[in-house]
Amino acid sequence: MHPAVGKFARACGWPLISGHWRRSRHFNAAALDRLAAAIAESETHHPGELLVVLETHLPDHVPDGVTRALEVFGRQRVWDTPERTGMLLYIALGNRCIELIADRGIDVPDATWDGVCRKIQEGFRRGDYLGTLETGIDTIEGELKAALPVADGADAAADPNRLPDRPVFI
Phi and psi of 155, rounded to 5°? Predict the structure, then answer.
């Protein structure tokens, strides 16, 4: 897209409109329940905590998606897990912005997270929002399971859940 077209679209409020449309069309209560179940199940295999945050569009005061994701990471207290194993999947629906932010206790290369974000974007372009997010959560879970192995005799499911499993809309 030409930069002038993008500026015009933002000035007309297109990300806001398309973000609200995508939210109402693809993220009803049943879809959120399915995503919550996928996240809850994934967290039984490792000590990581995944929070999915959906926003209709990037706020005007934010220059880009990474800046907004870092802001949300702090405001939602994703960093506040005992072993610094919190993870944020931030999605701005109207801007088609997807970011993964991992806390310091998760040792996975940034290129891996970039690949997960690209796959989610590709699925969204095809119009498969729910299935793509479920696949993305499975991929994130696989990476967290490899990076954060459960100690012998420990039970990851017994660890208290510190972040909500249900996706959060802001």
Answer: -120, 110
Average the pLDDT over 8-23 and give the result: 67
Structure tokens that stand for 28 in this block: 């009803």
- CATH code of the domain covering residue 95: 3.10.310.50
d(CA 62, CA 58): 7
Q: Please name which of 15, 18, 27 lies closest in space to residue 54, comparing C-alpha atoms.
A: 27
For 136-170, the pLDDT digits (tens) are: 999 999 999 999 987 655 665 556 788 999 999 99
State the total domains in the chain.
Answer: 1
Pair of tokens at residue 46: 């490792």
Cβ count within 10 A of residue 157:
12
Alpha helices in the chain (DSSP H): 3-11, 14-26, 29-42, 65-75, 110-125, 129-147
Burial class (CB within 10 angstroms; exposed 0-12, middle 13-18, buried 19+) of 109: exposed
Contact indicator for 169, 23 with CB cutoff of 8 Å: yes
For 44-88, write each residue's pLDDT tens digit: 889 999 999 999 999 989 999 999 999 999 999 999 998 999 999
30 pLDDT exceeds 70?
Answer: yes
Domain region containing 128: 3-169
> Is this prediction's pTM over 0.90?
no
